[in-house]
Amino acid sequence: MPFKDITGKQEAAFLSSLRAGQYNLLLGAGFSMDSKNAKGTLPSGDQLLGELATATNAKKSSLQRLYQLLTPAQVKELITDRFVDSIPGDTAKLMASFLWRRVFTWNVDDVLENQYRDVRALQRAIVRHFNDVYTDSQSLEELFIIHLHGFVGAPERGYVFSRDQYVSQTTKVNAWMTVLTQRMLSEPMIIAGSTLDEVDLDYYLALRTGDSARDDRGPSILVEADDPIATMLCEKHGLLHFVGYSKDFFEYCKSILPNPPTPAELIPAAMRQLIPAGVSKSVAMSFSADFELVPGVTAPSSNSRFMYGHFPSWGDLEANRDIARSIVSEIIVDVEKRLSDPLLFARLVILPEIPGAGKSTVLRRIAFELAKRGIRTLMCSALSRIASTTSDVLDLMDEPVVIVIDNLAEQATAIPDLLDRLEKADVVFIGAERTYRMNYLKQVLAGIKYDQTEKLSMSIVEARRLIDRYADAGAIGDDSVLKRRDEFAKKIENDPIAVACCRILNDFRPLDRIVDSIVSDVSGPVLDRYLGAALAQHCFYGGVRYEILIKAFGSAGAAAQFEVNSPLPLDFYDESKQFVIPENSTLSDKILERFAGRDPDRMLATFVNLAEELGPWVNRETIIARAPEPRLSGRLFDYDAVVSKFLGSNAEKFYDDVKPSWEWNSRYWEQVALLNLARYQRSSNPGEGKEYLEDAVTHARHAVAVEHHPFPLTTLGKILLNRMMAPSEPIRDSFDEAFEKLSDAIAMEERRNRTSGQPYSVIFGGVMNYLGAGGELTHIQHNRLREILTKAESKLAGDRDLQQQITLVKEALR
Global pTM? Predict the structure, then answer.
């Protein structure tokens, strides 16, 4: 056995993760030593030291110090030319026969890039330089190769060999280095070809321990000869020691997995059968990542976390662990009607309800029952980004399709575009969303037709059914409940169902008392992690990546927190177990509210730590790609909906504390502007209030300067219209600027083929206030306003509130 010490369980986990493409690689010079180019075999680190020492007439020192002595011409000769146009050796060929999540490399050579040019390669290589912004692969079809010390394919961008250069990179919070540090904490990692003397190895391993490593993934591995230093690193950082060299390791991988799967072969069989012939591999991978085919038949679950607050699995529904709710059959009948006559009805149905009312369970039950009836039903993940190619796949399907979307707001911006692209008529979308996000949905979906369902209030009959379910499961501790079911059913009748479930499990105590009993004896990392996960899910239904949560709030006791008997249990949102959520989101929201009032400093730290660890994952590319982290951070920074609610007077300190990491972001400045607008509106001191208002305008203008985009333009317009109505302010100047910015926002959205109700609503309200204050529109403004009114009338016909505004503005213009 080449491993120094490995259990049968660890070996099985290694094989499983290797087959699934879950491993990250961190490669050093030893990996490339059997590759060559026109100048011969690529040198080891020690050989390169000798060559640099000879060229500089210096004694053999560290690579970093010798590199500092090189002239630009010598850098080209001894580094770029020495490692370019490489012919991959056997090690690279063996490595490329497996699927990898991503590759980090200290090597500057182009061995991997040249190996993956082979048409038979399992993955498509995408090269990233250490100074590139962070992005991530869309699927396993793509393999990111991140050169941490530079790349001969881009010599003009520099190399990191000197200690000074390395310190410069780490002190400016290089995104790739930070993300690698987070992943090193817990994700399965293979370190191969390292001399164990790389300047940054200790940096990446610093926070990793046996506790931080996940035991539901393959073990992380150090590939190294039998050496006391290697042994020490493995013991200290929870790594398995593979005794040997890079080629030995990949040969071992081949011996235990001689026929690795392709990315397409990892798509679930049912989904592969669903996707029509002719769809490209990349589109198929993207579609599979975004949607789950709901099974019509499945085995009932024997163990379940559903009754403790987690959403139900298909097996839970087959076992009838949920209770019958009348709205399910009503929606099923309605959907069948829409599919049979798709041109007569709206293709989108929305179920709005308060948190904890049972939306997710009802949606999944509807999806399951539709699938049982033979209707192709797809469940959309909150983590998905619904690509523009989705319509291409759906259009090729012959039969009717139902797409179910929980937390519709996460996909709201993609829905209008998808409906516009779809040629297939018999597609119905069913979505659910919390009532407090319906205003946002109305603004984004104002240009399309949709219907809303009735509310999900729980009847006394359903309350009795709920008690019966817990009684059948042996989860009721007080026998008096069983004797007086009607009496106890009345106690929970008016509760959201998630609250009712929590009360049943806790002897029908009021929710506030349950929360007090849970948090009274919990502290430290367990509490911090829970608050972090709770805050993340409040902002983004898919939660937060495991490695971000662990880096932000520590790893001590993390594994136990995923057990059902933990006082503050966590769970995974997704099947691949990447994103963490609290087990019971209703309870977690209540705990967040409690700590916002009880321990504001802890809540502030939760916001700051989460924002700081999200920072490296967010940039303009990931925002455009609608990756989970930008969506989470966008809501996390939302002053009106989140920050003011949970931080109160600490809001300003939050924005100040994270400014160094986030001041590049226009949304950051938008929210700081809205913070100052709120302070102006609350201020009773005219002089102080005026300062707040001017700060709001300044920061909103800066947001537009950072990014000329409809969102900051709308925010600036809104704030300027508030200044317009302030005492002693020049009304025309503020209105003219606001009108220009809002008109620009509307025009930009139109060019992008998008329609949002927000800029229309703001401009119409501003016009009414301006005219009411005695202002007069210029001829150009009057004509432009007429154009905007006409567009809003047709494109936003479904927004009743906006249509009323349009009527009022038209009357005022007569």
Answer: 0.89
